[in-house]
Design a protein that fits this description.
The structure holds 2 protein chains of 2 kinds. By secondary structure, chain A is mainly alpha-helical. Chain A has 13 helices and 3 strands. In chain A, strands 1-2-3 form a 3-stranded antiparallel beta sheet, with no helix packed on it. The N and C termini of chain A lie far apart (89 Å). By secondary structure, chain B is mostly helical. The chains are: A mainly alpha, B mainly alpha. Chains A and B meet through helix 3, helix 4, helix 6 and helix 7 of A and helix 6 and helix 10 of B.
Chain lengths: 312, 235
């Protein structure tokens, strides 16, 4: 989609700052509708809260062709259709942005450009849940091939557990984070706040890096698994921290540090929990460990058995 | 027949008169009876269908539906760009396939272990909720396919995987082993790609061109999960 990239509106730093100050502005690029010139319409509206009604007023309108539509209500199909208004190239672009975080690269401002989507978070969570269950099962298959005494079973219930865990994490933690940031915003007026959907988007796309990591966890070398896990956690948490830093740095240092460390801690807990539950250390060691213990026990047995007739 | 006196010619010659002034002169004479015939044109085929489906034998009714289902099976097995699957959609085929698959995936859980294969209800839920989610996804992305047409296509394209399940069960009767596993893996892979290609042939045209991959990926994931359930089945 090179032509679309040429015609797409490339933001400059001033525009990014402008967007940061007015978080509810949405830039829409008309590149796929017009061919000759690029028109940009900046629409200023109220907060796009989840389930909240929205009244749009046309602000600085430079495009004559953008027509004004009444905003759909949240019980109509069209309301949800506006969250799936992404192209393949945009989704791939956002995934690439989540894989390569660097400081100053705010995921929400640079990649989402105030147009969050629900496609990415939903299907990345679904993929991660199924990949976790499948690879967890595959490690059991591979373990059984090496050691036939391990009992293999398809373990279908792990799909349910994986699905519930991932979806709860990817939707409830952004809800809590958004709620907390909104509460803090009540005391300060200057902070540019992310909407709920943008927070969900950030979390959803940040989980993408775990998908190849989980596949790589098939390699049965323990230290390699921990290395991959640590790498994935670092990338993912870095993406989250760099995105949240501009919002949080205007708060007191204590609150900022506490919030960011809580975010990183929750992420680490998720990664650790997945690793331990789905990729349990194989029971291979159980067959080896009792053997050395048996020999020290036998002298004790010899000592204890003559002792018992004496006591009775 | 009513008699009407109209004088359209007078309107052009005397423009000072208001339009349709002559209509006030319409009168129906009382002594001419109004009679005639009103016939609603009914096509001969519809007339025949209305009476025949009520009077036909049960066997004939069942055979007609079974033939429709069988014709769609053929369309899935040899996917061509045709609209037959989309035009006359029905959900009998997907139901038969889903029940067959779920029954075959049943394990003899005599020991009642917790982490066994998928239960009947789990297979049902995965297939139907998966199909509904994919349909909603493709509609939200802006596809112009109707809800039940999409369900119909996704359900019918499970046919190659059901055939793979049959073959796997037959192969497992011969005992398990690495060679057996490789053959089963090959069969399931072939059938999985057949399912994905067949459903993409029907569904991809309904999506806008820059979102085709977004709509096809969930289909891929759906059949991947079903293939994994088939591959990990142990009797």
């Amino acid at each position: 989609m090179a032509a679309a990239d040429d015609l797409a509106f490339h933001e400059f730093q001033e525009a990014t700052n402008l967007l940061a100050e007015t978080p509810d502005a949405a830039t829409t690029s008309q590149s796929d509708k017009l061919t000759s010139r690029e028109h940009v319409a900046v629409v200023v509206g109220e907060g796009v809260g989840y389930g909240a009604e929205e009244e749009e007023e046309e602000g600085d309108k430079t495009s004559l062709l953008q027509e004004e539509k009444p905003q759909p209500r949240f019980w109509t199909f069209d309301y949800y259709q506006s969250f799936f208004d992404v192209d393949t190239s945009q989704v791939l672009d956002r995934i690439k942005g989540s894989l390569l975080p660097h400081p100053g690269h705010n995921f929400v401002r640079h990649r989402l450009r105030n147009r969050p989507d629900l496609y990415g978070p939903f299907w990345i969570c679904a993929t991660l849940a199924f990949v976790l269950a499948v690879t967890g099962n595959l490690t059991l298959v591979l373990a059984q091939r090496r050691d036939p005494s391990i009992h293999y079973s398809p373990q279908f219930h792990k799909v349910t557990v994986a699905g519930i865990t991932i979806y709860c994490y990817a939707w409830l933690v952004p809800l809590a984070l958004w709620g907390f940031l909104r509460w803090r915003q009540g005391t300060r007026e200057r902070m540019g706040l992310y909407t709920f959907l943008e927070t969900v988007c950030v979390y959803g796309y940040s989980l993408f890096v775990f998908i190849p990591t989980v596949v790589l966890w098939l390699i049965p070398v323990q230290w390699l698994q921990w290395l991959f896990g640590a790498l994935a956690l670092a990338l993912s948490a870095a993406g989250l921290v760099f995105t949240l830093w501009p919002v949080v740095r205007e708060d007191t240092r204590l609150v900022a540090a506490a919030l960011l460390s809580a975010v990183v801690l929750l992420h680490a807990l998720l990664a650790l929990g997945c690793k331990l539950y789905f990729f349990q250390p194989l029971p291979l060691q159980d067959h080896v460990v009792p053997a050395p213990q048996a020999t020290p026990l036998s002298p004790k047995d010899l000592l204890s058995t003559p002792a018992r007739p004496l006591t009775t | 027949m009513a008699e009407a006196e109209e004088s359209p010619g007078e309107q052009e010659t005397s423009p000072s008169k208001p339009l349709f002034a002559g209509l006030s002169d319409i009168s129906i004479s009382q002594d001419i009876p109004i009679e005639g015939e009103i016939t609603i044109p009914v096509s001969a085929r519809a007339h025949e269908r209305n009476s025949s489906t009520l009077n036909e034998s049960v066997r004939h009714t069942i055979m007609r539906d079974l033939k429709a289902v069988g014709k769609k099976f053929m369309h899935v097995l040899y996917p061509r760009k045709s609209n037959a699957l989309l035009r006359d959609w029905d959900l009998w085929g997907p139901l038969i396939l889903c029940v067959t698959l779920a029954l075959m995936l049943q394990k003899n859980s005599m020991d009642g272990e917790k982490d066994g294969g998928p239960q009947f209800a789990e297979v049902f839920v995965v297939v139907w909720f998966g199909a509904v989610t994919i349909t909603l996804n493709s509609k939200l992305l802006g596809g112009n396919i109707s809800f039940f047409q999409s369900l119909c296509v996704l359900g019918y394209c499970i046919l190659p995987l059901t055939v793979a399940m049959l073959i796997c069960r037959l192969l497992l009767l011969a005992g398990q082993g690495p060679v057996n596993f490789m053959i089963r893996l090959f069969v399931v892979l072939v059938m999985f790609s057949w399912s994905v290609i067949a459903s993409t042939a029907f569904l991809a045209d309904s999506q806008p061109p820059n979102r085709k991959a977004l709509a096809v990926y969930p289909v891929f994931l759906f059949y991947f999960v079903i293939s994994w359930m088939i591959l990990t089945f142990t009797p």
